[in-house]
# Entry
Amino acid sequence: MAKNWMMIDNCITYIVGKDDEWETCKLVFTYFAGRFMGVEAKSDAVEIGEMKGHAITSAYEESGTFECDDERYNQIYDMVKKAVEANMMSVHTDCPTIERFAWQEPNHLMAPAIMYMKNGKKLWEKFLLDMRVQQHTADDYFYDYEGNKFYPGDGLMPGQAPCYIPNVLPVPGMGSFYDIIPWGSTCIIGTYWHYIFYGDQKIIEDNYDAGMKYFKYLQTKVTEDGFINHGLGDWGNPRNELARENIETAFFYADAKVLARFAEMLGKDEDKGTLETYADEIKSNYNEKLLVQNEEGYWCYKNWDHPDKLVMTQASQALPLYWGLVPENKKDDIVKAFRQTLVNEQAFIAGEVGLPYVIQTARENGMNDLIAQFILREEHPSYYAFILDGETTLGEYWENNPRSHCHDMMGHIIEWYYNGIAGIIPEEPGFSKVTIKPYMPNTVNYFICTFNTPQGEIKVSARRSGKEVELDVKVPETIEYIVDRSNL
# Structure
């Protein structure tokens, strides 16, 4: 039973012929998804000979592997991997059972995690093409629930691409489900991750204009306070701390900075200057209105939607740190505030939008021990709690019976397996230059990780004996690399 929904029991009816010969039926026009299959004959005259189920996916080609001697880590990896495979069907579906919509946000939020595991080069080219096709012009309209024409806006990038139900209009009190900056920003940040992993500048050439049109559309949505806040914020946050102004404006800044980098690469100097100036304005306003001192005297980011008290969420500290919104002289304080939000909760209290930045900001600032501790909690929110619940694919939300039982949208922890535990960190696009900075959790005494870059395979393995860790690193000759043992 899916939470707040109904029993999800996909069914197909097949009518057999009248003769006594065996007949074969095979689905070719659609697919069903579920943990179990069953066949029911409506007549005693029908004999069922054999039934086979096939797992189908567009994510068939593996790029990486990971294995260690703590089986819990392997179970989490396999759970996320199976959820990814079940949701890659030419479009990146939210789930294979309920909606099957091509919601776009995981195509940048989950991009590093998936691209470490799977070869996503062609898939992401297709996903981004879908977005360019779906991007609105000034003349586009559809009808609202009262039958009136609704013009989404020139340059808007729908939250779904392809979009089968265009009139997903704002829901009172919840925000827009059609116009959502972390979803639309895949046309910019999804392009960025493709370039980082595969080093092909053509992806930027193909998507730059669409990204610029979308950014200009976003500029029309800025509030009087200088924020973006019309979407869903940190969607999936277990305490519903969505922090729209904090989260969505951080993406607005990220879009500007990434587009400025693209403009420089493409020789569009005027665009570069305009984007950098605008990014500085976003940053200045963000810090003027959100950066405060707490009772202990150090700086932190307050949630704008709590004007009467200081509320700090993990994502509200992590995103500014990750994307470079924090003034240099206050960075140490924000890292301290961020760590405080983790230690106080002893868990990841973040939704799918904030979670990748919470995990990666923790990794970048020496908090791998907390990540390892949190993912193995036996109660939600926790990846291992899903394993204890008997799940074989990742749930939609941090709870048992999480509505959909096969969403990959919170599988960001896999990125940490590769760039945290194995420590394979790209320093240049296409992994032409890397840092190998492994970390061994205290319950792990052995791991082996491989990753196929465009330059060839990187292999990192480590074994602990007493207090000593033996590290073995193999990197193709075409890759410039350094090994940093400071986390071991």
Notes: The longest strand covers residues 456-465. Residues 244-265 form the longest helix (22 residues). The two ends are 44 Å apart (CA to CA). The CA atoms of residues 359 and 371 lie 7 Å apart.
